[in-house]
Amino acid sequence: xxxxxxxxxxxxxxxxxxxxxxxxxxxxxxxxxxxxxxxxxxxxxxxxxxxxxxxxxxxxxxxxxxxxxxxxxxxxxxxxxxxxxxxxxxxxxxxxxxxxxxxxxxxxxxxxxxxxxxxxxxxxxxxxxxxxxxxxxxxxxxxxxxxxxxxxxxxxxxxxxxxxxxxxxxxxxxxxxxxxxxxxxxxxxxxxxxxxxxxxxxxxxxxxxxxxxxxxxxxxxxxxxxxxxxxxxxxxxxxxxxxxxxxxxxxxxxxxxxxxxxxxxxxxxxxxxxxxxxxxxxxxxxxxxxxxxxxxxxxxxxxxxxxxxxxxx
Length: 313
What we know:
The protein has two domains: about 1-125, no CATH class; about 155-310, no CATH class. It is about 20% helix and about 25% strand. It contains eight helices and 15 strands. The chain has helices at about 1-5, 25-30, 80-85, 100-115, 125-130, 160-170, 215-230, 240-245; strands spanning about 45-50, 55-65, 65-75, 95-100, 120-125, 155-160, 190, 195-200, 205, 210-215, 270-275, 280-285, 290-295, 300-305, 305-310. It has a five-stranded antiparallel β-sheet. A four-stranded mixed β-sheet has the order 6-11-12-13. The protein has a four-stranded antiparallel β-sheet with strand order 7-8-9-15, with no helix packed on it. It is globular and about 60 Å long. The termini are far apart.
């Protein structure tokens, strides 16, 4: 099949036509749910509508236990995609990934899945994208220009929507929904270990990569493991606060389609932050779509990019 050939995926791969975004938690993240997947190497593929941007898109998702990545956009007829998105009705801000309808399924089978024609398949992730190259940043011992230091909250917090709007405006963070003209000017340097970079403005050290999608409970276990094993030589790694995570946000998406510096991996598109939502839910920072958002505890989870305070700064 042209679809899997173009994406360099195993020819034994198949499309799960029954899988939808809302079913993934029970299948891949919880102990119960619809179906128990026992192998960490097992991958399934399903189509869905991504309606986070200005216009809805038809995409192909690769899913596994604690693993999620969008591997391709499918150039389907706009009228079919729009009709599918429009039938979803009024949804919350964090519910913008939709299951496909029967009309799209029929079109996909005829024009994408059961044909050698791969012209409608646009790969979004390549093996080259998954590897971190040189950061392109100054070294940690290079001269630093005059910088105004910024002290940010780092404790766990409970934030309302009004609180998030206020902090975005206070620090002039870019946020697609709250402050499109914003920009926080970090000054990142390469620590020379191929794993971390530091921001001279905030005094924070960051993982260049991070942790795959998982529940908040599992993420806390990963943090404990990173500290126990002294990742990059340190044992004080933690989730960033909302303010800290927003400092990495760039107004324009980079070549990896992320609103961050290119030195960071694209495999952590939205990350947990140390903040719950008032009156309920959890806050995340989304570098794929350039904004903070909240979600209930029933979503599949989040990715992680840990930070620490650079006391040697």
